[in-house]
Amino acid sequence: MSSSSKHGFRNVPPPQGSKPASAYTRFIPREELGDFAAWKPGSFHGEPEPEAPPPEPAAPPEPTPEEWLAKIAAARQAGYQDGYRDGLVALEGFKQSFASQATAQVGAVVDSFNAQFDRLDTEIATAVARTAVQLARQVLRSELQADPSLVARVAAEAVNNVLLSARHITVRVHPNDLPLVAEGAEEALTARGARLLADDGIERGGVLVDSDVGSIDARIASRWAQAAAAMGSDEPWEPTP
């Protein structure tokens, strides 16, 4: 028996007309192979064969036009909501900033008004005082013109205010007031032994008393300055042109 018959192989003659095949090129039918497996490197050493990689997941199907429109609408709605929320936050911040600025500006305006009112009050008070002083000056001038004999009362008061120890008392008045004082203040002049003299340098209605211990200035301008100072004014007796 040949080696091929020992292993159960059958010799299949080549087809007619073909060249005889060598033993190395003989076709081996499937039924003669028996159990077999493809050889792989490392199979002789009993190494496990590597596992085949898992199949790749199938690509998702492309969205339909309706699905694309739905996604666009959802994205647009989300963007609108985000923009609306951010707009509300920005608006609230602007309102707070505007309220702070408006409060500060109103406070500054109120402070300015108060300062202006204070200055106005001061100006009004000054103007009223000036008007009152000017009115008083006109009234006094009118009284002196209407009743020149008032100078006699002024002369008597000035003489009586001289110290009792004073000597050499001299009373000077305007020449036109000399007879009025001589008649109206005769008693006071005689009691103090005062001499009455006419002086053109003294305005009508005024009196100047001199003595060895000092002088009493009862001239109109001096008396007016004292009265105006008591009213908080420095308005002179002679009005400024």
From TrEMBL:
Domain Flagellar assembly protein FliH/Type III secretion system HrpE, which positions?
Answer: 101-226
Presence of the UniProt keyword Ligase in the record? no
Residue ranges of the region described as Disordered: 1-26, 38-64
Q: Name one Pfam family in it.
A: FliH
Entry keyword set: Bacterial flagellum biogenesis, Bacterial flagellum protein export, Cell projection, Cilium, Cytoplasm, Flagellum, Protein transport, Transport
- Name its cellular compartments: Cytoplasm
**Is the keyword Nucleotide-binding in the record?**
no
**What's the family?**
Belongs to the FliH family.
The UniProt function text for this chain reads:
Needed for flagellar regrowth and assembly.
Q: What is this protein called?
A: Flagellar assembly protein FliH
Q: Which organism is it from?
A: Rubrivivax benzoatilyticus
Taxonomy of origin reads: Bacteria, Pseudomonadati, Pseudomonadota, Betaproteobacteria, Burkholderiales
